[in-house]
Queue: 2 jobs
Job 1
Amino acid sequence: MSASDAESIRKQTRTYIGVFVALMVLTVLTVAVSYFHMPVVLAVIVALIIASFKGSLVAAVFMHLSHERKAIYWILILTVLFFLFLMFIPLLTEWDGIKIPRVS
Amino acid sequence: MEIPYNVEPRPDTGLYNAKLGIWLFLASEVMLFGALFSSYVLLRTGAPSWPLGREILNVPLATLNTIILIGSSVTMVLSWAALKLNDFKKFRLWMGLTILAGFGFMIVKAIEYGSKFMHEPPLLPSNNTFLAVYFTLTGLHGLHVLGGMVVNGYFWGPGAKMWKAEPERFTNRIEVAGLYWHFVDLVWIFLFPTLYLL
Amino acid sequence: MATLVDDKLAHGHAEAHHEELGFWRKYVFSQDHKVIGIQYGITALVFLLFGFTLMMMMRWALAYPGKPLPLLGFLFKEMGGVMPPEGYNALGAMHGTIMVFLGIVPLAVGAFGNYLVPLQIGAPDMAFPKLNMASYWSYFLGGVLMISSFWMPGGAAQSGWTSYPPLSNIAPPGQTMWLFGMLALIISSVLGSTNFIVTIVQLRAPGLTWMRLPFFVWAQFVTSFLLLLAFPALQAAAVLQMMDRLAGTSFFLPSGLVISGQPLEVSGGGSPLLWQHLFWFLAHPEVYVLILPAFGIIAEVIANNTRKPLWGYRSLVWAVTFLGFMSFIVWAHHMFMTGMGTVMSTFFQTTTMIISIPSVIVLTALIISLWGASIRYTVPMLFALAFLPMFAIGGLTGLPLGLAPTDIHLHDTYYVIGHFHYVVAPGTIFAMFAGIYFWFPKITGRMMNDVLGKIHFWLSFIFINGVFMPMFIQGLAGVSRRLYDGGASYSHAQPVLEWNVFMSVSAWLLGLAQIPFILNFFWSIWKGRKVDSNPWEATTLEWAAAPSPPIAHGNFVEVPTVVRGPYDYSVPGAPRDFVPQHQALPQEA
């Protein structure tokens, strides 16, 4: 373990603490924002944006994704793509459905 | 018989085996929780009405749990960093805190669930789709937290023997366990606003 | 020819390096990929035989509805030996489930993949041997749980292998066992596929670049991604249905559901279509899991028995990769009849038509590979040659199903059953047989008997067509699937009913035709002609390891270095008509 390796780990540790603080702030923000009255669609978008930002910090910094290898990036991109298919295509299929009037 | 690239990374991919393995496993977990989120979206958009999360669920407790889990992610990565700095005592400390945080999370969850079951009338998953989604998603997430705690507990306890014999391999295992633990935290970061705040 | 393992040398090395494992660690709880592959293989073959028997029973009810079942009538003794409708449904649901999840995938991926991939890439074992063992036992557990459903009150799962709610939600307890079994099976597959991908990426021998991989390995690689990323959707669905059945939730139960005149006392608000989306998100990639390893096996057998390189190796690789990706966006072609609008219907028809292209490319490359070849009509090659037109029929009959206007008439008819069985039975299963005859000498060091093999092939080929070809006729006439009397109570089915007896007799004869195979298999293990490490004169690395490579001692004495592509047959200037992958010719030095 060379001195420069140790130094880089110590620098990383400072980053970890910094990210922790950021995540705490964002968590407070998440809860605070939810008290504003806004239409559901907007609320969802705002919540997802904040959550995505928090998630990206965890992934990039704690999970070391920001300097990972290409192979890992490709696997994750593929997975995210399939996740998006699974998330949106059933929804689109429901919305595009034949609208059979409901008999209550 | 030795399996190559268990510890030292393969030159062309730059990865050691378990690191690739855990990311693949996490990919499958993304699809698992993704399928559940997708189910939630489908059910909610198809429902004539849907309660506001905070009306039924305990936001302060869940916020506390969010803080606990994010904190445990930090202690987890610090435990790995301690090993990289050859500080086994610090590793024990940070990993111990991670496991404790896990206990904290599960206790808060138990309080949450308990208050639902003890409610008059009891709030059960069979009552409506909102509660069904809430219990199923947080329940499965909780099982994943438990699983992580078991693994972390093993590495804090009996598994730590490997540090003496193969320190680099042990450090890699902690990194891999950490990746899983961060992922569990990541899922909660999305689960919390989705269920409690929307 | 040079092998990489000298038996005595290998043994000497072994003694020097580690103690011998006890019986249980060596043969039962083994971490050696070869043992695990054999475990998967034997277990899967037993399940296949069991699933086949269920079908033979069903075919009695279809040929002779209302007549008591011979030999096995005691199973339905309260009904006087006649199979009741619920019994038929249970056999049908379990036949499908067992064949797909307990039979073919474990055989194609768990057995062939596990045994051959490390050998073909020159690795000592899979990347995670303990995980490999866990995968097998998880599969075994899943199988036991599934089969145990037969003993549940009300019988086994009986809502189709597709388990659609609301029916499956309210079905007897056997369905819950099906769900538990499915959870264990999916864990097995996810762990297994992780292992395969890491092994192929990380443990390739020096010189084994991606484009020098045997096509079989590429097929297993893509298959593993399908298993890894598609199965979790069914895992989620199984969890949700478990909650519905055990915790009283209504994920899949709509509001206002009335069963036998009684409104169901549940919260409602659920969506039966949600199950279908989650199920088919897995089950469509699943069918490519069924066929891709088969493509891999057929490619190896064809290359070896034509004594020339495969035509279009790059196209084959591109095709299966593209196929794997596309397989994730076609699933709702199983749902055209669920009230889908024209926009999404068009989307899925388009992706489905596009996905047929890579299959055609694969088939074309394999057929062109025969051109100008010195074909050796060995038993594996007979099965491989038959695979080509059989898979073509299966694939072509899929086209009208993938187009919504024709699917309106054909959905849920026997046409569908004919289509998918052609791909899976004279398709994949023939490829499995080809693989067993082909790699038997590698695994056991002995050859299977040639005469019995040819009898097995010809009888199977004839009778399998007898079972499935008439299904297209019945389907086009409008006979629905999953009818316990084969359509006897429907007037529109009367003109084609006579085919039921024909198909059933073909099925029973097909069963008898497996006897030469079973006898051959066991007899050859002990009495088959002994051979050296490369009886087929093949080029890929597994043939360079010892015949029946030693257990738990690694596969190769020294790690091979690959210097050429996987199918260097008939290389001009070479001393023999094949050059193994790790062998450099003098002129190349």
Job 2
Amino acid sequence: MPRARRRRARLPTPILLIAPSLVFMTALFAWPLVVGVAQAFTGVDGPTLSHAQRMLDDPYFWPAARNTVLLIVVLIPLQFAFALTMALVLRERPRFSGLYFYIWVVPLAISDLAAGLVWLSIFTDRGYLNSVLDRLGVEPYSWLSYEHPTTVFLAVLIAELWRATSLVFVIIVAGLQGIPQDYDEAAAVFGATYWQRLRHVILPQLRPSLQVAMILRTILAFQTFAVAQALAGRDFPLLVGETYHWYNTLQNANVAAVIALVVLGASMVTSVAYLRLLRDRTTEVAT
Amino acid sequence: MTNSSWYGPRVSRRAALGLGLGVAAAPALAACGGVSTSGADGGSGSVSFLCTQFAPVEERQRFEQILSNRVTTAKVAYNTADGGVFASTIQSQVEAGKVQVGLVGGLHGELAPHASRLTDLDDLVTALADRGIEADLTDLSKLGGNAAKYIPWMQASYVVAVNKKALQWLPSGADPQKLTYDQLLAWAAAAKAGNGGKAVLGIPAGPKGLYHRFFQGFLLPSFTGGQITTFRSPEAVQAWQYMKELWANTTPASTNYDFMQEPLQRGEVLIAWDHVARLVNAPKEKPDDWLMVPAPRGPKGLGYLLVVVGLGIPRGAPDVDKVKEVIKALTNPDTQLDVLRQNAFFPTVKATLPSDLPPNISLEAAAVQAQQGASEAVLSLPPVGLGAKDGEVSQIFKNTFKEICLDRKPVPQVLDAQAKQLNTILDQLKVPCWKPDPAGQTCKVM
Amino acid sequence: MSAPAAVRRPPAPAATAPPRPRRSSRRRKAVLLQLACLAITAFMGVPLYLITLAALSSRAALNRFPLSLLPTDLSTETMSRFLDSTGVVPGFVNSLIVGLSTLVFALLVGVPAGYALSRYAFRGRDPYQLFLLLTRALPIVVLSVPLAKVFLTTNLYDTTYAVTLLHTALALPTTVLITAAVFVSVPRDHEEAAAVLGANAAQAFVRVVLPQALPGIAASAMFTFVMSWNEVLGAAILTLNQRTLPAQVLATLADSPLAYRFAGGLALVLPALVFIAVMRKYLVNMWGTTLR
């Protein structure tokens, strides 16, 4: 192929195309990353693991790790199922789909703080939910009290589901745009049921979008804490919340850096896993 | 396949033109580097003032008004930041040698980690000697060193707010203005029983709440007479047993409260202990429905904590003389009384309180004065000289509360474990004790 | 037209042909669909309604219990106080400048990279993606001081440029990855066809590939603008007097009375809403092309 030969003549085209982003990121982040990360293992007299030890001894660390993992493991599949449902429902082009689409995307525009605020005002002791219950004659319940950890977790789950599903939804919608309807119709003609078409025609073609959505959503999920903090304070600690706590309140940048590295490590491991598992075999044989 | 029309969306020419113009305009706009948000571009002639206080919208507007009225020597660009951004800004600017902030204002605990990054202000202290700032405060401002690092600007304390509806459950013979801790417990228990099992007492035990100051400055000094040295004494065990019982009669939603004035306004709690600036809005609408009372007394007296907000100058700041003029203007008695009237922070200089204070502020002022002037008052200071470890020491008190009251672990074991951690920090720092502990020795838990 | 050549409907009597859905079952399907949409809209929409309600209620109304779910006690006092407070309008302008500039730079730098990822399986493809994700995966709070120092030493501190640069770096992962995923679905034949017709690589890209990838570009544009609009920490540590709206306002809102927090939350949301309204057209105008 003439194109391939031309490509090897000077700098390969892909490298040229990704060069600006590489240069940009390196110039901006290289030194801060080195300095920030080095703090995790530098003590007064040189390299040390004492900060890591301190982090592990902290009573809030393991609950935070557990909560983060729990939230991710429960939340992400729910969000994907929800977002996929939303996208497929809209694909059938019901009436008012334009308006529905807009409302379903709006939570994307809302900052963490505002989202935490609105769900706090719903779940708090004298909030909207208890107001509704009170009007119905039911005894109000302390949803966010530290004495009721299950409802605290559920409240955080619901709030995060509301806030963050739009991201996945938009990516899936963008991906669905490129799927031709012919294959779908052909499968229908040959007698495939909706579920079969979904599994064998639509989802495989959605794979690149799903892969991207999984990676991005998981990385962002490791980072979220603002909503959980608004709802439950330190009753429901999360890893990044602890990072902020160590950095700001306890003024200890070293331990904060160690926790940040834990978050980074976990995110990278899951990203690598997604890249491997959801690899699109067809682009491997690209010329 | 010869159909060469593109089957994408037809982006009309006009739309493309508009998009292109908009897109090209943005970088052009960026060429001006931004629009000033503080009313002064921090450049020629103005002083950049970075402060952690007066962040809420209304307080900030009122304070900016005071600045423009009272500070006539220079234009002050007022910016607020929360603790973390405040610390990062000072640290990054001083360490890079490019300081743009001329004046910093923060709580004692927020300025303490930056002792090495603030200029010495002894000359300014001598210039302000006639203002009558108390010796205790000036000592605090040395941050454990030899020279004053900040000028005490405002002070505040903590009181108890009581909605008069709670008075129906007050134990007989108890005077709200002169409560003991036992009476408080009895009152809270009676209120909970009389209110259908829902407690009416609240404390700010949220993530940003100041409940650790209650333990450091009020509970422990009142029961044990000390803050650090007596951390695991038998009296301290008694104090925490008491706290356990008090917590059983406090609303559990307290773990979500950072500021008590909103739960008080909403009627979720009727009795609350908190910082004066975080209680001041509660009686605003109907001052006659409220009482502000001093904190209760314990076996060793009435322990109370002083909060100090100071003004400092970062090393390498521009226009230091102008900044010192601003500090002088801010420590003027009239300016400080303005601040009291508007934002409920008390003066550090000698100033007689006027009689025309707003009703909610005069309620607080009376309580604070009664507290400070009580015969058995035991003054406590926030930790001195801990630098960056200030936060960790506060965390120890918070963890003690969590393990004893929330996790219900046995008191002596928790105190021993936490005392060990406290000693690890204190042994590294080797600082002398501060009030209420006896001065002189290197501080550690006995 | 490479539609499978002879896929025509098999003649009706064949046993394998599915029966035409009857009118009533079609209507039932439409009703069920609408119900599903309404249920989802209720979940997504009710909190939005509550923000608006709380932002426009009087302060006294927010202190009552039970709270009213209907707009009975409206007052624009909190909103107008909030909008009058210092620096809200300049902050708005700064946020707009930063948001649009970030959009431009992120697309300029990110779209070619996304194209490269989708078309070429070069060595270092996976490490490159992981490198991009690195900056999003590390909590930026630990980089506060070194990052501020970088901008202080280059004299870019306290300008909108600094914030633009930071936001572009934060937006690159989403831009590159999403556009890559969408470029994958644009078949190579189209570019080759364009080459056959005499277009060079750049022209082929702009006139053939780009229009079909518009949904992906619109999606990443949405994310970039919204992210930049709502980003607080980076903007707060990199500026002092030339702040963006969130840096100016969000930190102070945290300590303000409840009513202001709602008013602030609502005011912050509105411009992002406008941007999404504009972008959504490009996102959903192609629900599955039928021409291949």
